[in-house]
Amino acid sequence: MLPEQPIDAVRNRKTLRLFIVVDDTLDTRYKVVNPSGEVLILPDLLFDEDPITVTPDQFATEFTPEQLAAFAEYSEKAAVQAALAKAAAARAPEPRRVVAEPAKRPKTKRQATPVQSRRGLGASWTAPRLTFYKHKIEPLHPKQSFKITVEGNGEFELTKEEFVAQFNDVMMSPSYRSDGLYTYPQIPEKMQRYRKS
Questions:
Q1: Given CA atoms 174, 133, 152, 166 in this order, what sign does their dihedral have?
Q2: pLDDT tens, 29-48?
């Protein structure tokens, strides 16, 4: 059953299609329902900055039938889970509280803990052809870069932000999303600007 209230959506920068937002609390990512009806978690850099509100009278023109059906199914499941969680919380006894004094440690010279840099080279790999690995790129901060050494063709370095902006087709491809990698048979022209001299 379709909701009778407005739905928030974000517009994909490359395809200009609307993706229904089901969760926008994931830091730099959105949980969305794409036009094919798949529920995905995607980087927010793929979309225009501000979500838009779509009213019920616009649903048929802005969303696909598959998208609306998947959103309705997701909403129903979320409502059932919320009701179950509420019922479980009502039955759960109050947890016992134990107050303990923290253990005293001998005073030592404070050691610096390594903090992951949000800039600079975050990952690198070598491949026979230009290959993007999801598990190496996704954890990077948008300003961090990664370097790919393509055997016989040289090195290419770009930031995650540049990758998201220039290689939206890779990120949206089924092989990148499900298999975690995308390989170009030939190095595309748009990659030449990232060649290391």
A1: positive
A2: 899 999 999 999 998 889 98
